[in-house]
Amino acid sequence: MSLVAIVGRPNVGKSTLFNRLTGQRQAIVDAAAGTTRDRHYGKTDWNGREFSIIDTGGYSVNSDDVFEDEIRRQVLLAIDEADAILFMVEVSTGVTDLDMMMADILRRSGKKVLLVCNKVDNYDLIYSSHEFYSLGLGEPYCISSMSGSGTGDLMDAILSLLPADCEAEYSDDLPRITVVGRPNVGKSSLTNALLGEERNIVTPVAGTTRDSIYTRYNKYGMDFYLVDTAGMRKKGKVTEDLEFYSVMRSIRAIENSDVCVLMLDASQGIESQDMNIHNLIVRNNKGCVIVVNKWDLIEKGNNTMKEWREFLAKKLAPFSDIPIIFTSVINKQRIMDVLQTAIRVYESRKRRISTSELNDFLLPIIEQTPPPSTKGKYIRIKYVTQLPTPTPQFAFFVNLPQYIKETYRRFLENNIRGQWDFSGVPIRIYFRQK
Length: 434
Prior knowledge:
six-stranded mixed beta sheet; about 425 residues
């Protein structure tokens, strides 16, 4: 799936455009420059084609020199990874020195760039947008991200720049298992250990691995693609840039996989970056196996493993039915369990349950514990069926679907999980009008 990055100096409306294109209020929008500090990523589709968008927010800093340095690094990372760049400028401010600097970087990059002139709220302002031709990036697309005017033409232009989905290269029906995680948790070491060879994946330069590397694994009766995303620097401080880069790396890798092996560092616990990557996996309906690496560095009591499992389940709620494996890649401890579990999750993700089997099991449970009545109206679930989708999704046919609460949805999901093995697989449940 293609990746589009929104770049520009602070306060030109990047987050407002991001929210507009993804149809969600995920990025905080404020008049103060530098509000966006975390990186936001979301999906959008236009004319039946889906792509990912990443919002590269501005920075809140004191010195102009540092400011330029940070912006430059951020733009370079986005340029490096994205298929197309939206360069945002603001009509009322005109061309600034920062705009000139960024336009210069973008022109030299050779990447596909669309110049987006924001805050064009009326026709008179379109004439003011002509000064942006001086940036040498072609015709500016005049939009108002607040009202949405002009965004349709912009989306058409984005689609014309994006490459056709390149998944056909690996179109055979083999599972694709991807190793994801923060920098320096042992992703490349795990890949090397599984393949039984030292591959030159990790170099001192962050982001050396430009694309995910597909390796066919055909041993011990297993046959699948192992997708390596280890493109991170091994030593040195993990800067904000690298955190940002690992998210961009992970988006691409997760979208092209069937099962994700999310690696954690036992000595550091689970951090916000791990939660971001886990949320990406769930949002994309991918299978998930959690590997807690560097287990040899942990002092262990009688119940250390059990305590870790409980702690992780609490952190990852509500989707906490995920297999957890504790490994030491250096000692090759339990690394084959990782593969066997990932294959089991892949099989679970493809599981089909017949409508009769579903109804025989679920309808008596629903009869015994019906959805609570709302506003004096009784809610009746008539029958349930699994939808013909690539991932497990179930439709419950109900007389009043709008009154069913989230807690009852979870109750049904837990019963499905209790009866059939969907460990590590996100389940979607829909209530439809009967």
